[in-house]
Design goal:
By secondary structure, the protein is an alpha+beta fold. The chain has one domain (2-124). It has one helix at 2-50, and strands spanning 68-69, 82-86, 100-109, 115-124. Strand 3 and strand 4 (115-124) form a beta hairpin. The longest helix has 49 residues, at 2-50.
């Protein structure tokens, strides 16, 4: 009877370790999938920005207005997803600099409810 109890204890310990490993693996896979989706959205957004004439990118009323969320990417693929376009060398109301530095910041809530962020930067010239 003692041998049976020891065997069951070892089996339970082994099974619980395997289950914990599977749970951690699933969390990592989810995090990787979310990060990939966010980067794909950032790249697609940057491609849309780069085809626009540089003078029209950061101005008011543009889909990529300075320091405003890009409406087309609001909660697109991820919970609470938001992409904000910023232009570190641009002063609102002034002439658009050449080259224009474009920085896209993506934020979302991951499967654990934590806020995650990614950044993608590029330069565009006339």
């Amino acid at each position: 009877m003692v041998e049976l109890m020891v065997a069951i204890s070892i089996l339970l310990f082994s099974v619980s370790g395997a289950v914990a490993t599977q749970i951690a693996s699933k969390r990592l896979a989810d995090t990787g999938a979310e990060t990939s989706a966010a980067m794909a959205d950032l790249q697609a957004c940057m491609e849309q920005v780069l085809v626009m004439p540089v003078e029209t990118i950061p101005i008011a009323g543009s889909p990529f207005e300075a320091d405003q969320p890009v409406a087309a990417y609001e909660s697109l693929h991820l919970t609470g997803e938001r992409i904000v376009a910023t232009y570190p060398t641009y002063v609102v109301g002034a002439a658009v600099p050449d080259p224009l530095e474009i920085v896209l910041l993506s934020s979302w809530r991951d499967h654990g409810g934590r806020t995650r962020t990614l950044r993608l930067a590029c330069m565009k010239t006339r």
